[in-house]
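Review form for a predicted model. The reviewer records the input and the model, then writes brief findings.
Reviewer: anonymous (R2)
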Amino acid sequence: MKVGIIGGKLQGVESAFLARQAGWKAVVVDKSPCPPASGICDFFYQCDVVNDTARLCRLMQEEALDLIIPALEDPLALRSLQICAATVDVPLAYDAAAYSITSSKNRSNRLFKRLGIPMPLNWPYCGFPLIAKPSVSSGSQGVAKIDNEKELGQFLRRIDSSLGDWVLQEYLDGPSYSIEVLGANGDYTVVQVTELQMDAQYDCKRVIAPACIPSSLDKRIKKIAIDIAAGLHLKGIMDVELILDKDVLKVLEIDARLPSQTPAAVYSSTGINMLEMVAEIFIHDILTPVPQLSGTRSVIYEHVRVAGNKVEILGEHIMTEAGPLDMIPGFCGAEMALTNFNRENLPLAATLIITGDDFEQAWIRRGTVIENIVEYLSKAGAPDLICNGTVLSAGLLSRG
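Model under review:
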C-alpha cells in the first residue's frame, strides 16, 4: 500500500506517522523544501500543487499511489487535488460537500442550529469576555480573547468591515474534548474521546487519551459527534471539538478531514489506526467496525521546545517551525518522539508520546522524560534550563 500525502505540515506529519504505523509507504508532497513531514516519509517531492498541477498528476501516476490524503486546507490546492485524482484515477480521501460546511465556522454554526446542537452564545447575545475566531481558519490561528467594550472597539476597528469573516462568541473556561467520527453510506462510528489542554495562545499543547471522564459524559460526546456526522451525510473522517460548560456540552468547531494530534494519541492508546479506516472507506467503500475497546493505554501527547535556556510546553504550532522531523522510538523514555533533536540552527522541539497503564503512571513517566531531556542537554553542554520560572538541572523535573 502506498499513499500520497499532499501537504507536509502538521496534518501531513499525522498522516505520515499513521501510514508508517500501518506499514505503508508514504509519499509526501509540499511546496516547501523542508516541511516537518519530509523527515518521516519514504519519499518526498517539492511541488506547488496549485501552480504545477501537471507535475502533481505525473507524480501521482509515476508513484502508483493507492490513495491520496489531503493534508492541507487551501481551497485552490484542494481543487487541484480533485482534478489530479480524477485524471490519474486514484481515490481521494476528501468529502467536498462536508468540508465546504466544516471549513467555515459560520456555516458550521448554522448546521449546529439546524440540528439543535448546543454551541457557545454568539455576540451580542452574550457578555464579556468574548473569543474572536476567523471563520475559515482551523486551530488557534488568529484567535483572540476580548475582555471588555474597549478591546471590542479596538478589534472592530482593526478588522474594519470584515466582521462577516469572524465569529465572536462567549468565552468558556471548562474542559475541552475531541473525538473523531467516521462515516460511509449512512453509517457512522466513533473511537475514543480525548481531552485537549491549551497554551496561552489557545493552541493545543497536550492531548490526554482516553479522557478521564465518566461513561455518561463519554456517551453524550459520542452521540453529538454521530448526530453531526449524520447531518452532514459524512463520508470519511471528521473531528469534533467540544467544551463542557456547567454540565452542558457545547460544540466549538468541526473539521471534515484527518486532524493532527488526536488520531496519533488514540492509536497509541487503543491500537486503532484511523488512517486505515479512512482507506477502507475511500478504496473499498467500507466502514470498518470499531472493536470493543478494552485494555487501553493512557497516553500523554504533548509538545516541548527548548530555546536558549528555556524549556516550554507549547501548542503544536511550534512543530511547524521545527524543520524535518525524525521518528525516534524510546526517546528519553517516551514511547515515541517526533523531533528535530538531530537538526542544527533550530530551537529544539519534540512531540512526545508517553504511555502508562493509567493516567497517574503516564504522568509520572512524563516527568521522567522531561528529566531525561534536561540531562541529555546538560551532557551536551547546555546551561541550566528554566521551565515555568523554575531552574532545571539533571535530577529535577517539570510538570508545566
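Findings: The CA atoms of residues 4 and 68 lie 5 Å apart.
Further findings: Residues 298-392 form one domain.
Recommendation: see findings above.
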